[in-house]
């Protein structure tokens, strides 16, 4: 199930808030998600690492496009969420949609 939330009124606001190379955590109710602005675009995913719940906002993205958790180094592919060595559950990815009406987060649960 996908719930849609408006994050910004314009794409310019999004890019000003999270410039290329930047990252930000967004809270939607009890849920926290990370938005990373990579060269390949915006990637949105759960903040909590599926391994042991560390904040992935503290992680970095490597040259393979994987977010690397800062606590134990598990790596999650930001195209599908799979951990590189299948050592734990997949990372839940979400969608960002940029339209003329604004920037929306598609929260997948
Ligand atoms: S909590 Fe993220 S790798 Fe262990």
Overview of the structural elements:
The chain is mainly beta and 109 residues long. The chain has a single domain (2-108), classed as 3-layer Sandwich (Rieske Iron-sulfur Protein). The chain is 6% helix and 45% strand. It has one helix and nine strands. It has one helix spanning 11-17; strands spanning 2-8, 23-28, 31-38, 41-46, 60-61, 66-68, 75-77, 93-99, 102-108. The strands form two sheets. Strands 1-9-8-4-3-2 form a six-stranded antiparallel β-sheet. It has a three-stranded antiparallel β-sheet with strand order 5-6-7, with no helix packed on it. Strand 2 and strand 3 (31-38) form a beta hairpin. The model has no long low-confidence stretch (mean pLDDT 97). It binds FE2/S2 (inorganic) cluster. Residues 49, 51-52, 54, 69, 71-72, 74 line the site of FE2/S2 (inorganic) cluster. The site of FE2/S2 (inorganic) cluster has 8 residues, from loops.
| CATH architecture classification | 3-layer Sandwich
The CATH topology assignment is Rieske Iron-sulfur Protein
> CATH superfamily assignment?
Rieske [2Fe-2S] iron-sulphur domain
What global shape is seen?
A: globular
Low-confidence stretches are: none
Strand content: 35-45%
**Level of helix content?**
under 10%
- Provide the residue-averaged pLDDT: 97
Major beta sheet summary: 6 strands, antiparallel
- Supply the number of structural domains: 1
- Distance, first to last CA: 6 Å
Question: How many helical elements?
Answer: 1
* Broad CATH class: Mainly Beta
Order of helices and strands: EHEEEEEEEE
Strand order of the largest sheet: 1-9-8-4-3-2
């Amino acid at each position: 199930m996908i719930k849609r939330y408006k994050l910004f009124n314009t794409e310019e606001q999004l890019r000003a808030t999270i410039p290329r190379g930047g990252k930000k955590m967004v809270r939607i109710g009890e849920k926290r998600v990370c938005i990373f602005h990579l060269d390949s675009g915006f990637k949105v995913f759960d903040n909590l690492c599926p391994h042991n719940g560390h904040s992935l906002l503290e992680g970095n993205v490597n040259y393979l496009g994987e977010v690397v958790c800062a606590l134990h180094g598990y790596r999650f592919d930001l195209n599908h969420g799979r951990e590189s060595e299948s050592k734990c559950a997949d990372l839940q990815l979400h969608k960002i949609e940029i339209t003329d009406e604004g920037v929306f987060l598609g929260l997948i649960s």
